[in-house]
């Protein structure tokens, strides 16, 4: 497993991070979750990403139990705050109240006294940014979070947050956007600003929710047991990708991967990791062997000819529109996806 510094900070993360995004009614068992975490550790993955909202807080609990007994100093545990975690009016957003209460809940569920990176899951236009960043500063100074990051913020929001973090002298080191060879939205605006400010990307959905594994073929017959056939495990997230035009283009990656002795999934992950502003890519799994296979991509380096072949295969269906950065409104259900 390869490793990289997160932004200009001293924090080192594994090139692949294990993510345990679970839906509210996920069919994944506790036994499977533990097996996937063990496979990640065995593959050299030390970075683990979750969020308080995943599975209505159960994902943090599951991850905490799976990591119990591991040397805490050898792990990087990342979680997020913003989305609703209760029925009250103050149970969501980035107010001082919600941030301070949420971190304590996350630490309790994860079984630790600190997280290595605490991330704003979305931007909150209903709370003054100064209040949000001051609340994050309080957590850093209290030792509950070592570093601060964000997820799906626009370039302007990142620039404003970074300026305040600099005034408050707290480490604002990362953004977590959706990014893959099919979803290239951050490239035009977000990544250049982050590079300028010394921040890295921790990307989610680097395999486009499994589409870039090549297992979904044109024609609409999905593999049994896949996410596309499981309404409890995020099949709605896949809807935009599961059409013959996209899937036909993804099939063109097969010969490219075969020529390098890689799977399509490994090729797609290596493509993401090739971007110099990407510190780590978050991968999930429904089976531990998926983690083992995907981990091999962390050390792959693709030459210019291969990168050009991937771009040519997917260019007509890849989204590059910077305006497609996730809507930051709390009313938007999109926060559930990252």
TrEMBL record:
<comment type="similarity">
    <text>Belongs to the shaker potassium channel beta subunit family.</text>
</comment>
<dbReference type="GO" id="GO:0051596">
    <property type="term" value="P:methylglyoxal catabolic process"/>
</dbReference>
<keyword id="KW-0560">Oxidoreductase</keyword>
<feature type="region of interest" description="Disordered">
    <location>
        <begin position="319"/>
        <end position="338"/>
    </location>
</feature>
<dbReference type="InterPro" id="IPR023210">
    <property type="entry name" value="NADP_OxRdtase_dom"/>
</dbReference>
<dbReference type="InterPro" id="IPR005399">
    <property type="entry name" value="K_chnl_volt-dep_bsu_KCNAB-rel"/>
</dbReference>
<protein>
    <submittedName>
        <fullName>Aldo/keto reductase</fullName>
    </submittedName>
</protein>
<dbReference type="InterPro" id="IPR036812">
    <property type="entry name" value="NAD(P)_OxRdtase_dom_sf"/>
</dbReference>
<feature type="domain" description="NADP-dependent oxidoreductase">
    <location>
        <begin position="16"/>
        <end position="314"/>
    </location>
</feature>
<dbReference type="GO" id="GO:0016491">
    <property type="term" value="F:oxidoreductase activity"/>
</dbReference>
<dbReference type="GO" id="GO:0005829">
    <property type="term" value="C:cytosol"/>
</dbReference>
<feature type="compositionally biased region" description="Low complexity">
    <location>
        <begin position="321"/>
        <end position="338"/>
    </location>
</feature>
<keyword id="KW-0521">NADP</keyword>
<dbReference type="Pfam" id="PF00248">
    <property type="entry name" value="Aldo_ket_red"/>
</dbReference>
């Amino acid at each position: 497993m390869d490793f990289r510094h997160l932004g200009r900070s001293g924090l080192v993360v594994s090139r692949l991070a294990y993510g345990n995004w679970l839906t509210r009614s996920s069919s994944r068992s506790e036994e499977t979750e533990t097996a996937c975490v063990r496979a990640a550790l065995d593959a050299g993955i030390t970075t683990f990403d979750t969020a308080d909202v995943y599975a209505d807080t159960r994902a943090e609990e599951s991850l905490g139990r799976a990591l119990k007994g591991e040397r805490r100093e050898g792990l990087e545990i990342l979680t997020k705050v913003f989305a609703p975690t209760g029925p009250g009016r103050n149970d969501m957003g980035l107010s001082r109240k919600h941030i301070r209460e949420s971190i304590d809940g996350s630490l309790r569920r994860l079984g630790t006294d600190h997280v290595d990176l605490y991330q704003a899951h979305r931007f909150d236009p209903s709370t003054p940014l100064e209040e949000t960043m001051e609340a994050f500063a309080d957590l850093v100074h209290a030792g509950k979070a070592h570093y601060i990051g964000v997820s799906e913020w626009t370039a302007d929001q990142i620039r404003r947050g970074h300026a305040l973090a600099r005034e408050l002298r707290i480490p604002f080191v990362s953004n977590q956007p959706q990014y893959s060879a099919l979803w290239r939205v951050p490239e035009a605006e977000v990544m250049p600003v982050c590079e300028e400010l010394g921040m890295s990307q921790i990307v989610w959905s680097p395999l486009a929710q499994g589409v870039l594994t090549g297992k979904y073929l044109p024609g609409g017959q999905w593999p049994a047991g896949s996410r596309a056939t499981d309404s409890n495990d995020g099949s709605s997230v896949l809807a935009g990708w599961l059409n013959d035009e996209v899937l036909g283009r993804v099939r063109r990656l097969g010969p490219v991967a075969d020529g390098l002795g890689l799977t399509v999934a490994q090729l797609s992950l290596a493509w993401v990791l090739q971007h110099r502003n990407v510190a780590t890519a978050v991968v999930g799994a429904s089976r531990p062997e998926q983690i083992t296979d995907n981990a091999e991509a962390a050390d792959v380096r693709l030459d210019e000819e291969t990168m050009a072949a991937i771009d040519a295969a997917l260019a007509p269906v890849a989204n590059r529109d910077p305006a497609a950065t996730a809507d930051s409104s709390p009313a938007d259900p999109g926060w559930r996806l990252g």
